[in-house]
Amino acid sequence: MRRCSPALCTAALLACGPGDARTADTAAGAVARQPIALADVAGRWRMLATTTQGDPLTVYELAAGPDTSGWTITFQNRAPLPLRVVAVGGDSIVTEAGPYPSILQQNASVRSLRAVNRLVGDSLVGTFRAVYDTDSPDSVLYGRHAGRRMR
Length: 151
What we know:
The chain starts with 5 loop residues before the first helix and ends with a strand. The chain folds into two domains: about 30 residues, no CATH class; about 110 residues, Beta Barrel (Lipocalin), CATH 2.40.128.380. With about 150 residues, it is of the alpha+beta class. Helices cover about 15% and strands about 45% of the residues.
């Protein structure tokens, strides 16, 4: 049986140190992200909402302020709707809106719209859940949204 030399054992221990763990994590796709700040997304965004399968639903404008005030969404031919920023943490900003008249279902209202927004490169992406004020089985709509900052 062979014995390990002390130099080889030391090299092996150093290779397992914290520096390599970070490299292994990055190589495996776990990229460390900076926490998001509201100022990072401040501005106007042209957004596309789709179903979870990717079918287009609507286009709207998102106006984001550098703090929690002044956030709105504006659907085509509609007045701006106020958005409430309910949480900011990690890489996500969570917003809520509602109630408001639905743009997708005639004679229906959206009781609440909750969205999770993430900044990925120069795009704002995320998911949403719209709860309609109805007792029908289709009272909840899940989807995705993505957009670019307007210049």
